[in-house]
Backbone:
């Protein structure tokens, strides 16, 4: 399977998880940049989540996914797969 397709499955799951949170939950969880690893199909992936913008009307959040270091995909990892979403204020 194409590496980016595998990453997209992980990204879709992480976007679903983070975008399900309320504005207040996101503010509390993302007071600092979040970076962690998840496992999918026995492979490790690095996930990064951070706030891009806070306004009076919304919160703009980006989620990025790359393969874990040491997976032999350094050239592909230079350009992570990412997506952002907006969460309206309460």
Residues:
């Amino acid at each position: 399977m194409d590496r980016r397709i595998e990453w997209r499955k992980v990204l879709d799951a992480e976007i679903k998880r983070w975008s399900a949170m309320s504005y207040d939950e996101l503010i509390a969880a993302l007071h600092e940049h979040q970076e962690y690893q998840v496992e999918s199909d026995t492979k490790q992936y690095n996930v990064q989540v951070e706030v891009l913008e806070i306004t009076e009307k919304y919160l703009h959040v980006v989620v990025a996914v790359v393969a874990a270091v040491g997976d032999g995909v350094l050239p592909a990892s230079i350009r992570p797969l990412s997506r952002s979403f907006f969460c309206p204020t309460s």
